Structures are given as structure tokens and as C-alpha cells.
Amino acid sequence: MSEHTCNHCNHCHTHGNETEEKSNKKDIVLYIISIIIFILTFLPILENYKIWVYLIVVLLSGYELIIEGIKNIFKLNFEEDTLMTIAVIAAFALGEFPESCMVVLLFKLGEFLEEKAVENSNKNIKSIVEIKSKTANIIDEKENIKVVNVEEVKVGEKIIIKPGEMVPLDCKILKGTANLDMSSLTGESMPVNVKENEEILSGSINLNRKFNM
């Protein structure tokens, strides 16, 4: 029963990601089409139809914005979408059709850039989280070294980090000094020197010394 539930959740998560990805692709395609149509408004042959062409541009690129904004207006909820919708409607009412299109196109571009930045941040965070050792060398009560899974290490237990090994857990140095490669965590290319009583992060790599934690 438990296994079935887990598999079902994973399927839902995957399906949700696929749906979101398709939605993003659709928005990008509509946005590109909107830009092309907007550029076409500068052609003399569309002079008599410009108002309709501008309206198409606004609806194609900002339909979600407009719908959400109108809903918020009736709810008296003046958020970003609401204010942008009011600005677009006001520009149309004043006959500033190109300006109304630019408002929507620039706003949508900002959304795309923001989503991309968030996506890159999430990828970086995920990669940092995945940078960790699966095992640790713990020192038992008899001073023997035992290799265990990281999940088995308890708070307060002593571990040894050998040269070339990755620090498996966030910890404090009890004995020894070393140079750590922390480039995967901080982007710093130069080794960082650490000594006793300093705290170090998991994912760092011990370059030259054995020390106790």
C-alpha cells in the first residue's frame, strides 16, 4: 500500500512538471507571435486595422494578466496584475495603442526573465544539496575508525576527514589544520585554510591533511 502511494505521487509530480513545461512553451510561442504582429503594425497596409491588430497583440501576450487583473478589480484587490491591467485599459481608452502593447510586452518579458532566474537558482541550490558524501569515518569509543552511512552519524560523534575526502557533514574541527577546496559551494577557486575550533561545511574537500571533527 505504501509503495503504491509513493509511485502514484511521483507520477503526479512528473505529470505536473510536464503540464507546467507545456504551458510555459505555449506562453513563449504566443509572446513571439505577439512581437511579430506588433512589428507588422508599422506597415502602411495595416493602417486602417491597427486598433484591432494592437488588441490582438495585447490579448495574445497578456491574456492571463488581463483576466487575473479584471478579477482582482472586482475583488478590489489592487495587486501588480490589477495595476497593469488598469494601465493597459487606460492606454487603450486614451488612444495610446502602441504604448498599451509595450506595457504588456515588457511586463511579460520581465516575467519570463524572473522565471528563468528562479529556475537557475533552484538548479544551483539542488546541485549544492546533492554535493555530499554518502559515507563518513567515525571514531568509536575504542578509538577505532568505522565507515558508516552519513545518515547514521549522530550529533556529537567524532569523524575523521582523510586527504582527498569530502566533508560529509557540517561540523567543527577538533584537531588538525587543512586546506579545503570549497569551489563547489562558494565558487572560490583558492583553497581555504581551516584550523581547530572552526566550523566547516559539508561538500568541502580536504586537500592535504587528516583532521578530526
Keywords:
14% strand; 9 strands; alpha+beta; 4-stranded antiparallel β-sheet; 54% helix; 2 domains; 3-stranded antiparallel β-sheet; 213 residues; Calcium-transporting ATPase, cytoplasmic transduction domain A
How does this model look, in words?
With 213 residues, the protein is an alpha+beta fold. It folds into 2 domains: 2-130, no CATH class; 135-212, Calcium-transporting ATPase, cytoplasmic transduction domain A (Distorted Sandwich). 54% of the residues lie in helices and 14% in strands. The protein has 5 helices and 9 strands, in the order ααααβββββαββββ. The protein has helices spanning 2-40, 50-74, 80-93, 97-130, 183-186, and strands at 135-139, 145-149, 158-161, 171-172, 178-181, 192-194, 199-200, 205-206, 211-212. It has a 4-stranded antiparallel β-sheet, with no helix packed on it. A 3-stranded antiparallel β-sheet has the order 6-5-8, with no helix packed on it. A two-stranded antiparallel sheet has the order 4-7. Strand 1 (135-139) and strand 2 (145-149) form a beta hairpin. The longest helix is centred in the N-terminal third of the chain and has 39 residues, at 2-40. The radius of gyration is 28 Å and the shape is elongated. The two termini are 42 Å apart. The model is unreliable at 1-16 (pLDDT under 50).
